[in-house]
Description:
single chain; about 170 residues; alpha+beta; 2 domains; four-stranded antiparallel β-sheet; three-stranded antiparallel β-sheet; elongated
Amino acid sequence: MPLTTAQQVRLRISDQPMIADNVYTFDGSGTIFALPHRVITSATAFVTDSNARWTATGAAFSEYTLSWSATGSALSGYRARYVYSVFNDDEIDHFITAGGNVNGAALEAVQTLMFDGLKRAAWRASDGSEFDDTKAMGLLKDLYATLKEEQHEDAAVGGSISSWAIEQENV
């Protein structure tokens, strides 16, 4: 079965769904906790039972938060297992519409990632911790340049991909 345009875009930008399985700690006061990933498509939360086994709960997930119906005991653990991606389906559809094709949609996605990356390229917190994402920005710039070059090449051949066999005649 051929891939849909959205699946092709996800493949092109390496935004395949991933699985996270992490253990976190309750703070003793909150009931809503932010997760490190934004687009969560399916999820289950667990707490330990009296035999120290993970037991599924009825916690609720939104696009990037986990909500509990009651406050957990301070310093007790909970586990969140979920499937996530960088972009949701509506965003991918928007990229396809704005970009016009798979390559154009990939360019739209990379531009979005670059803009987001500018907000957090390098920073230092008051506790001394640092974050430097400038290498990721460099990779995004390289990817953007490659996609633009491919777009230009496609336009030069009338928007179609020329045959390898035909091109070999010119070698």
